[in-house]
Amino acid sequence: MFDTALTTSDLMFLAKGAGMTLAITGVSVAVGTLLGIIFGVIRVQIGPIWSAPLTFILDIFRSVPLLIQLVLGNAFQAIVQFGWEPFTTSCVILSLYTAAYCTEIVRGAIDAVPPTTRRAARSLGLNWTQDMGYIVAPLAARIALPSWIGLTLGVLKDSSLVLWLGMIELLRASQILITRLQEPLFILMICGLIYFVLSFPIARLGGYLEKRWSPND
Amino acid sequence: MIEIENVRKSFGPLEVLKGIDLTVEKGEVLTVIGGSGSGKSTLLTCINGLEPIDTGRILVDGTHVHAKSTDINKLRCKIGIVFQQFNAFPHLTVLENVTLAPRKVKKMGRAEAEEIAIKQLNHVGLGEKRDVYPSRLSGGQQQRMAIARALAMSPDYMLFDEVTSALDPQLVGEVLDTLKMLADDGMTMILVTHEMSFARDVSDRVAFFHKGVMAEIGPPEQIFGDPQNEETRQFLSNVR
Ligand SMILES: Nc1ncnc2c1ncn2[C@@H]1O[C@H](COP(=O)(O)OP(=O)(O)OP(=O)(O)O)[C@@H](O)[C@H]1O
Ligand SMILES: [Mg+2]
């Protein structure tokens, strides 16, 4: 159908790039979400004044372009001689970037749980942990879900920036093939298709959970 | 027995309770009436320790509610409270709403908790609704569920804060009937209400709150028939 020089091994090369994209995104979203939940709960618990330093640091990660964070982060780890692989550096920076956004999502979701509902839970004798676990967590998760899915899809795409650290992920792999084969449109189409295939299940998972949880509201 | 001794409580510069002294005996039904902002809700939330107090003390069966050494969550099992807002847990079915605290706080098994829950739900006339989510209930049904949820902890005391105020008029009756039933069963209750004829009907004593002070307390015949306090008289003539 297509007259192309693209070989099976080239496709494998792309697939490996996609695997790298998925790995970096998976690690960063997992670690970032965990940190985001911890930071979000801390922010709600200790209030805006005491959490100001934390908020300030997270604001930096939210406002400085990711590319600059990656390059500076990499330079920093070299200067202090952490000796990190580019993969580690990429995951650390992207995790913090994800955590910064996730913290806001978590804080907003916890704040959106009606205080009167929480007071009712406490008045039944539930302690703070039980209130958080059985009331706040499920309700906040429902509220946070759409934003969190959006964040995850964003990180999946933004992870392409780690190519600046020499990582060969999906976009970089495509670029290499384009340089060699001079078939930019076709290769970019395949690259875009792979991004879509990676994103689609995440988006669907969101839709599925939203539907499953909705009759309960 | 609930003993409230010289309790003062401020929110910032606003003193909401200005030295309340009040004792509620076992089996007694005390109704609290009074104007908006007079401190009625605040008193109830202080009794089960949801709000701290500034001075004075509150004892429930001799236990100091606000003492650091008190296991407040254990004490709260004894004191059920139902609020004006319905406060259903929207992600749980009616049955799960009612079994949550018995299972997690009292560490009851599922079967035992459900048995108690179903008994309480039947008691308030919601036996058939046990598997639906609260969003499918009317306001009156949600409020009765909240009552069943509190009763499932087998409390010795029940506090009700204007539980019919957010209801459509035609739903008020079903909830008041539930309260009446509880009172007839001998439950010790403090209820804040604006339903004066109901208060007159079920109360052993009626307390009138005015600007953070308990201005008058007495049997319903006295408060409604022959109030001694000028403020009480004025309040009652306004609500009638
Ligand atoms: N958490 C709070 N923070 C600050 N002020 C509060 C808080 N809770 C209550 N207040 C204030 O305390 C006063 C007494 O409130 P409370 O809710 O006890 O009155 P109430 O007698 O129950 O009135 P109502 O009949 O309107 O329910 C009010 O002026 C209210 O604005
Ligand atoms: Mg009130």
From TrEMBL, chain B:
Transmembrane segments: none annotated. Belongs to the ABC transporter superfamily. It comes from the Bacteria. Keywords: Amino-acid transport, ATP-binding, Cell membrane, Membrane, Nucleotide-binding, Transport. PANTHER family: AMINO ACID IMPORT ATP-BINDING PROTEIN, GLUTAMATE_ASPARTATE IMPORT ATP-BINDING PROTEIN GLTL. One of its GO terms (molecular function) is ATP binding. It is a peripheral membrane protein. It is found in: Cell membrane. This is Amino acid ABC transporter ATP-binding protein. InterPro entries: AAA+_ATPase, ABC_ATPase_HisP-typ, ABC_transporter-like_ATP-bd, ABC_transporter-like_CS, MetN_ABC_transporter-like, P-loop_NTPase. Residues 2-236 form the ABC transporter domain. Gene3D superfamilies: P-loop containing nucleotide triphosphate hydrolases.
